[in-house]
Write a structure and sequence with these properties.
- There is one protein chain.
- Helices cover 4% and strands 49% of the residues.
- The protein is built from 3 helices and 34 strands.
- The relative contact order is 0.14.
């Protein structure tokens, strides 16, 4: 692996870099693990989704971007758009660090639409001459023509009583006032939420205090990427706590991303839970989820996340000059005190030709003949309380990427430990979920280097990266009396070079 110097890591993209980046893109687009229907980095590294919004008739999404390699360097914002949350278009560089307040990166943030303007709140990562960090919460505005203008003055300055870790502003409106929910770390090295308010978006911000979550005293050493959404008459608090202890099959990733359903008490700065703190995704690779500012779907939220995690590495693509992917957009709904996550309705457009079909355990169509498509969508209906085993990207005497359900233990298992390319193994290579009501359905999205498994129409989701080699090209399916359909996947993300 290349050793990067500080100078190389903190290099801002310039117009003169276009040819260098074009050549890098030409190299990485030949990689067998480039996606067909997931948002992927144009070059270099992608991590957190930012500024997700429905604005001026389109979906706008930005991602954290280091252009020059598959490592965490100086963060820019890259811009993609969509008409339908399925077909995504590269729009190019949105913001680069050029102010004193963001001289070491335009860090994560959110979007809020007001009239003809998309407001983008983000964290300016400043480091002084002694390399000491100073966080500023900044604002940029995008007009209907797509022009983005940064404010020269911070919305919120560094807060005393907290460490330098203050970031990821969630900008939202409630009852005619504006709020920013910020992730932070106090001087006792505990993760906290800070809540600010103003009557105007562009000025007048004041700290209300720490938002407490009733019944919860400890969310690790840092809270990142807070988000809060009103769904029907419930509030949904999403966030990424760092430093949670593993609890059996829970919280096994390096850093986790979870949610609580409840009520928001603005007067007393308290979130009152009506559910437990739950993981958003029970898979191996998921972090920094963000919901869109949108009015298309009432009583629902639209969410995407980084298909990765802080401090994880994917060596096979890192060495090719790129890293990172975003998950499929998901629709979030609340039933009772349970969050359901499903692919957005438009995801059905990704279904191409039927490659395989089994009814009540009998094969009625098969054009795969045991060969695993590099991208496909699978739907398993009502397994009739039977055990099920799917081995994707397998080879003789190897399980490949295994999805299995044990009807006696009512346990679903995701396991990539038998694949050639192993990575981040210190956090394990399998995940288990106990299905209290058994297995009713699986909907599986496979896209060259990623798998997303939606269980029981959104009761659980498990997401994982994997990097199959050429010889890992078989599929095995086991289970009686099952209805299983496999479709080819429609390519909806063009791997084009736009800077």
């Amino acid at each position: 692996m290349k050793e990067w110097t500080r100078e190389e890591l903190y290099r801002a993209v310039q117009e003169s870099d276009r040819e260098e980046l074009r050549q890098l893109h030409e190299t990485i687009k030949e990689s067998p693990w480039r996606s067909d229907f997931h948002i992927q980095t144009v070059t270099g590294l992608l991590n957190d989704p930012n500024g997700f919004s429905r604005f001026n008739g389109k979906w706008h999404l930005f991602y954290q971007w280091f252009p020059f390699g598959g490592v965490h360097g100086l963060k820019h914002w890259y811009h993609v758009t969509s008409d339908d949350l399925v077909t995504w278009k590269n729009e190019g560089l949105a913001m680069k660090p050029h102010l004193l307040e963001d001289n070491r990166g335009c860090y994560s943030g959110s979007g809020l639409v007001k009239g003809d303007t998309l407001y983008l709140a983000y964290t300016g990562n400043n480091k002084d001459i002694h390399w000491v960090r100073h966080p500023f919460q900044m604002l940029a505005k995008m007009d209907k023509n797509g022009k983005i203008t940064k404010s020269q003055v911070p919305l919120i300055y560094e807060q005393k009583g907290y460490t330098e870790h203050q970031r990821d502003p969630k900008l939202f409106e409630h009852n005619g006032r504006y709020y920013i929910l910020l992730g932070a770390q106090n001087e006792q090295k505990k993760g906290v939420f800070l809540l600010f308010t103003s009557e105007e978006i562009e000025k007048g911000w004041k700290l209300l205090g720490e938002l407490k979550v009733r019944g919860y005293e400890d969310f690790g050493f840092m809270i990142e990427c807070p988000d809060i959404e009103k769904i029907g008459d419930k509030w949904l608090l999403l966030f990424s706590p760092q430093g949670l202890e593993e609890q059996g099959d829970l919280f096994r990733n390096k850093y986790n991303n979870g949610y609580i359903i409840g009520r928001m008490d603005f007067d007393n700065l308290e979130f009152i839970p009506e559910s437990e703190f739950c993981e958003l995704d029970r898979g191996l690779d998921f972090y920094a989820a963000q919901c869109a500012c949108q009015d298309v779907y009432p009583d629902a939220a639209i969410m995407t996340a980084w298909f990765g995690c802080g401090e994880y590495k994917t060596p096979v693509t890192d060495e090719q000059g790129y890293s990172g992917l975003l998950t499929l957009p998901r629709m979030l709904k609340i039933e009772g005190n349970r969050l359901l996550q499903t692919p957005v309705p438009e995801a059905k457009k990704l279904r191409g030709n039927v490659l395989f079909e089994a009814k009540n355990g009998s094969i009625v169509r098969d054009t795969m003949h045991g060969l695993m498509p590099s991208s496909c969508i699978m739907r398993l209906e009502d397994p009739d309380s039977e055990s099920v085993n799917l081995n994707l990207f397998s080879r003789p005497r190897k399980n490949g990427f295994m999805i299995s359900y044990d009807k006696f233990r009512k346990t679903l298992v995701l396991d990539r430990s038998d694949m050639n390319n192993q990575f981040n193994t210190e956090f394990g290579a399998e995940r288990k979920v106990k299905l209290e009501n058994g297995l009713k359905s699986l909907e599986i999205y496979v896209d060259r280097s990623s798998v997303e498994v939606f269980v029981n129409d959104g009761e659980y989701v498990l997401s994982a990266r994997m990097f199959p080699e050429k010889e890992e090209n078989l599929i095995r399916m086991g289970g009686r009396n099952i209805d299983l359909t496999v479709w080819s996947a429609v390519k909806s993300v063009e791997d084009d070079f736009v800077i």
